[in-house]
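re: that chain from earlier
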Amino acid sequence: MWLPIPVRYTVVGGAQEHKELITKDISGGGLRLSLEEKLEVGTLLKVELELLKEKKKVQLDAKVIWVEPAPDYMECSYEAGIEFINIDFAERTMINNYLLYRTRMETKS
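^ sequence. v structure.
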């Protein structure tokens, strides 16, 4: 589902440099990001989502499961599919509830 949610990520074992982006698509199982850098499939990430309704930041382990060049009309170079790993039921439920809340708010306006 396309909802712009602030996300920060760090490559595990990398330079510990945080990248800040807005999600492209997101679900309780993962997200899609538009990137300038090419991440390799299998790269492990630490991801932090900012769920504004809960006024909470959710920190998750994640893995890159696909990467492809972005279409020419996009301002980024790559798009990547990120899968949450080791996510527990409470974290997944919090993300899904937040997405449901945001979807309902946007359909009311």
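Helices lie at 89-108.
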